[in-house]
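Okay, is this right?
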Amino acid sequence: MAHSKILTIKETEKEIKNLLKHSTPFIGQRLRVLLILKQNEKTGISKREAAKLAMVDPNSVHKWRTLYINEGIEGLMKHQRKGFKPSVFNSAEHDMLETKLNDPQNGLQGYVELKDWIEKETGKTFNYNTLLYYCIRNFKSSVKIARKSHVKKDENQGISFKKTSEESARK
């Protein structure tokens, strides 16, 4: 079995705790491991013991410990996550959609017509779901369409049905 690795950490416990208070949860795990390593600096602690105390995987402790040794606290606190993808719609297209959706006289029957309209205006093609979720997320939109009546529908039958329904409901 390997010996516990004795590691010299330059930062004090107070500095690490202060960084821990102001960090994101993603970086906080790394700093918690560093704090455990700092507290066991003189005797040394294995990566498995540190992982058990910090409730993370031992391989993560090994990776973060190596990262700290090579790059210091700056390397430990940076991450390679990129974030969200850039929007498919630029600001001009966003404004066009906003004015079209807020116009009460727009005459759109649904998102398919909106998709056709924006593609015709911009010359770019868009995925239906991309447009749908973009409009819902940014404009809180919902294109509500009344259900169409059947051509052969008899209005008198509907009225007589409503009358009998009310009478039977009272009984």
Summary: The chain has a mean pLDDT of 84. The two ends are 84 Å apart (CA to CA).
